[in-house]
Write a structure and sequence with these properties.
about 80 residues, mainly alpha, 2 helices, membrane, transmembrane helix
Length: about 80
């Protein structure tokens, strides 16, 4: 009976330590990695405009490299 009680107590201690470590991990994760706040709308618009400018520059560079003398038509598909 005494051996069973001792093994039960040691098992409970191990489980409590594991739960405590998990809770400590959650606390530290929330403390040192705060949630990211959403960007203001003005900043989103600026970022989207910058991305559109970069895409337009890439398309211009690709079209400049294509030899259009051999083509009758040029079709560019937008892929997002």
């Amino acid at each position: 009976m005494q051996i069973e009680l001792r093994s039960l107590l040691s098992g409970m201690i191990i489980v409590l330590m594991a739960v405590g470590m998990g809770l400590l991990g959650v606390y530290l994760a929330r403390k040192y990695d705060p949630p990211v706040e959403p960007l203001p709308n003005e900043l989103k618009i600026v970022i989207e405009e910058q991305l559109l400018r970069e895409k337009a520059e890439l398309i211009r560079a690709l079209v400049a490299k294509i030899n259009l003398d051999d083509c009758d038509t040029l079709v560019i598909h937008s892929v997002s």
